[in-house]
């Protein structure tokens, strides 16, 4: 309520604190304030009508993003809590907002660096963007962002953005409820298919088609398993469930962006994808295709993402081969984690001798084999041991080609001859004993296995 002071000299009323003798200016300021408030109320009413229309028309996140983009006259995005873009609308001078510096090279919003709420133009690096959380009850569902071409977004804009986030929460809650039911049926069917319990191949392919999947084509089985053991974690059961759901959603989103007919489902601690490939594709070609999906799911590792190891099977051309391919993918995951540690990607056909070494049930036997074969080179007590092991590995890889080994290691020929002599004094005459050479080659492979 505006307080009015005593009458001025000409009988006009003045605002408190206003200089006497300026009744016209006072009335103009009051009229401007009233008009400003009227415009804000009108804008808020229009935004309310737009958002209600989105809800009543059954609109999704794309429609929510489009409504927000229209409100700010720029662009808008809806992302998961870790920054994966779920919907986007509008542009900034013809450029997608995902090209801005607040998104990483994989297109993920760097949520850990972006504050939520209004940005003070005096202190914010870029007040033309704002983010608010999408929350339903105690659940954090995602982030809604608005991008203005200029000027900076005001507190009123952020308030309207929060109202839009409420609508986005309704949409996401509905979508998640539907997706939970659908994913349960899909996961049960895929588990049966991978176990060989899906029945006749023709019937299984028909049932998969009713779920929106095309599995009657050449494909590989991709298994992605989180590196963290949920059975031994200190996290709460609710946190583990939330992280696994996020992991499944990340894979589902990455796969569907490529092909909506690809089968993908999540189990207890893994995600399985039946990825279509050219039946004549070699392992390197297949790994490049899978690696692109892995890159999208991983992003830059921010936003609370967990590391995972992925394994790829050989190509299968019949549904009857799925159980065998699933076992190959799981083997690639297990061996890949032993050889490379976490966050690896391995193809079953490229496991080589590591596949056999991984079958040894007691890793203590493998460690003892390394110690007995490499002697003092098995440890890193001496600074030069790692360098000597590398020299030995390259020598064996080049079939004792001294000139090629010197070239790869950037050594002078005489320097390499000196090292070979030193290695033979430590390990024995491996240059003339093929059995010793084989033993040393195996010992070096085992030494590199990080999962022992």
Summarize the SSE layout with pairings.
Layout lengths: L22 H34 L4 H12 L2 E5 L5 E6 L38 E8 L2 E9 L7 H40 L6 H10 L8 E8 L10 H22 L4 E4 L3 E7 L6 H16 L9 E5 L9 H19 L4 E3 L5 H5 L5 H12 L10 H13 L4 H8 L3 H15 L6 H15 L4
Parallel strand pairs: 8-9
Antiparallel strand pairs: 1-2, 1-4, 3-4, 5-7, 5-8, 6-7
Helix pairs in contact: 1-2, 1-3, 2-3, 5-6, 9-13
What is the gist of this entry?
By secondary structure, the protein is of the alpha+beta class. The chain has 13 helices and nine strands. The protein folds into three domains: 58-175, 2-Layer Sandwich (Beta-Lactamase), CATH 3.30.450; 195-357, Reverse transcriptase/Diguanylate cyclase domain (Alpha-Beta Plaits, 2-Layer Sandwich); 363-448, PucR C-terminal helix-turn-helix domain (Arc Repressor Mutant, subunit A, Orthogonal Bundle).
């Amino acid at each position: 309520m505006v307080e009015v002071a005593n009458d001025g000299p000409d009988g006009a009323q003045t605002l408190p604190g206003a200089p006497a003798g300026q009744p016209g200016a006072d009335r103009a300021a009051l009229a401007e304030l009233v008009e400003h408030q009227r415009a804000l109320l009108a804008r808020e009413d229009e935004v309310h009508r737009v958002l209600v229309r989105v809800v009543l028309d059954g609109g999704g996140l794309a429609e929510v993003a489009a409504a927000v983009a229209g409100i700010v006259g720029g662009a808008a995005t809806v992302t998961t809590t870790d920054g994966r873009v779920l919907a986007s609308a509008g542009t900034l001078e013809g450029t997608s907002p995902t090209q801005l510096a607040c998104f990483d090279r994989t297109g993920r919003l760097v949520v850990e660096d972006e504050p939520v709420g209004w940005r003070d133009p005096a202190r914010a690096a870029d007040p033309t963007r704002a983010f608010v959380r999408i929350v339903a009850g105690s659940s954090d569902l995602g982030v809604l962002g608005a991008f203005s071409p200029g000027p900076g977004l005001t507190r009123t804009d952020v308030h309207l953005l929060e109202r839009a986030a409420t609508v986005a929460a309704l949409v996401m809650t509905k979508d998640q409820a539907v997706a939970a039911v659908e994913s349960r049926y899909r996961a049960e069917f895929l588990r049966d298919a991978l176990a060989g319990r899906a029945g006749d191949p023709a019937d299984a392919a028909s049932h998969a088609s009713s779920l929106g999947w095309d599995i009657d084509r050449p494909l590989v089985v991709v298994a992605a398993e989180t590196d963290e053991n949920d059975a031994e974690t200190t996290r709460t059961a609710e946190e583990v469930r939330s992280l696994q759901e996020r992991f499944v959603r990340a894979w589902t989103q990455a796969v569907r962006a490529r092909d909506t007919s690809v089968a993908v489902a999540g189990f207890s601690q893994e995600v399985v994808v039946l990825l279509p490939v050219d039946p004549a594709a070699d392992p390197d070609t297949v790994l490049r295709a899978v690696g692109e999906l892995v890159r999208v799911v991983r992003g830059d590792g921010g936003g609370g993402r967990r590391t995972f190891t992925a394994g790829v099977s050989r190509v299968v051309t019949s549904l009857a081969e799925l159980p065998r391919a699933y076992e190959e993918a799981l083997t690639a995951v297990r061996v890949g984690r032993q050889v490379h540690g976490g966050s690896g990607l391995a193809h079953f056909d490229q496991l080589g001798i590591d596949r056999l070494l991984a079958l040894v049930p007691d890793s203590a036997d493998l460690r003892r084999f390394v110690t007995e074969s490499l002697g003092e080179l098995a440890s890193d007590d001496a600074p030069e041991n790692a360098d000597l092991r590398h020299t030995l590995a390259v020598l064996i890889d080049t079939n004792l080609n001294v000139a090629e080994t010197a070239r790869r290691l950037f050594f002078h020929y005489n320097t390499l001859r000196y090292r070979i002599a030193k290695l033979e004094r430590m390990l024995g005459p491996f240059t003339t004993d093929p059995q010793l050479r084989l033993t040393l080659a195996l010992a070096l492979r085992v030494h590199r296995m990080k999962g022992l």
